[in-house]
Amino acid sequence: MHRCVGWIALMAGLLAAGTAQAEGKLGVLDAWIRAAPPGATMLAGYATLKNTGDAPLSVLTVQSDAFRMTSLHETVVDKDVSKMREMHRLVIAPGETVQLAPGGKHLMLMHPRGAIAPGQKVEVTFLLGDGRRVVTNFDVVAPDADEAGGAPAHDHHHP
Ligand SMILES: [Cu+2]
Fold first, then answer.
1. 66 inside domain
2. Residues with C-beta atoms within 5 A of ion ligand 1
3. What kind and span of H or E run contains 141?
4. What is the whole-number distance in angstroms between the Cα of residue 45 and the centre of ligand 1?
5. How far is the CA of 85 from the centre of ligand 1 (A)?
6. CB 3.0-4.6 Å disulfide test: which of 32, 40, 79, 101 passes with 36?
7. Residue 81, domain member (yes or no)
8. pLDDT digits (tens, 9 = 90+) for 112-157
9. Structural domains counted in the chain
10. How far apart are the CA of 121 and the centre of ligand 1, in A?
11. Which residues, other chains included, contact 135 with Cβ-Cβ below 8 Å and sequence gap of 6+?
């Protein structure tokens, strides 16, 4: 009897351990950086982030050797005024997709170390809450190309 209970407890322990291994997996799609005029100090990056794993994942921030300062921003409208603020943790549920897009959440890329020209690829690393890093290449795209479909007139823009 007691041995039997112990066996069940052991099995339960193994099952719990199995569950603990569940983890979120970050997929980054359609990653691009909006090209800016030479000398621009603020650029923005956009992408579709998808959690393809079976547990929530959190993105803490981004890093790139191509810029001196990088962060995750979101745009909020407060009394008709569009403002940006830093996001310190972007949580993505299993199976969920989060769009980083003009006028919304974006990568804030400041003070490029060199020219960022259309056609170039820029490596960006996403830092996850559990310490993992996801390295992605972002395509630098000229604004004309991405706005062919007609972006909102009061699109979020950087000074
Ligand atoms: Cu911003």
1. yes
2. 73, 84, 108
3. strand 133-141
4. 9
5. 7
6. 40
7. yes
8. 999 999 999 999 999 999 999 999 999 999 976 545 443 443 444 5
9. 1
10. 20
11. 123, 124, 125, 126
